[in-house]
């Protein structure tokens, strides 16, 4: 359902500084992973090709596309949440952090945030809530005509 929502949505632009930061992080992670394969006799070019990239430019295009897709989904997720009044509380985040600490044997909350990233837990909880909302409110249709009628009905209900 969410993929269909994303497909039917339009994002007008990105925070280019955020795109660059995330691309740089992803690139750094790729380079670190690639270097770990050296011990098995694989060079950087081997790892590039094994991941479907012909060269460094191809890798950067792939990473940039991946990051823009991620940010598109994240923006749409938060727009739905905002429009529908869906929120994540600090208590929910704290409970999830505690759950992860138990599940993964982390000794501190900082370990959880270091492993998952600063916004992963809130994003994960928000995603669960938005997906539940979409599932409960989805209208399944078989034809273009029904799709138009269902969209008009959903729009009226959302207002």
What helical percentage do the residues reach?
over 70%
Specify the number of helices.
8
**Total number of β-strand segments?**
0
Structure classification: mainly alpha
Low-confidence sequence ranges = 155-159
Portion of residues in beta strands equals under 5%
Shape: globular
Q: Helix-strand pattern, N to C?
A: HHHHHHHH
**Largest β-sheet summary:** none
Cα gyration radius (Å): 20 Å
Give the structure's gist in a few sentences.
The protein is mainly α.
Kindly describe this structure.
The structure is a single chain. With 159 residues, the chain is mainly α. It has 8 helices and no strands. It has helices at residues 2-7, 16-36, 44-50, 56-84, 90-104, 109-116, 120-137, 144-158. The chain starts with a helix and ends with a helix. Mean pLDDT is 90; it is low at 155-159.
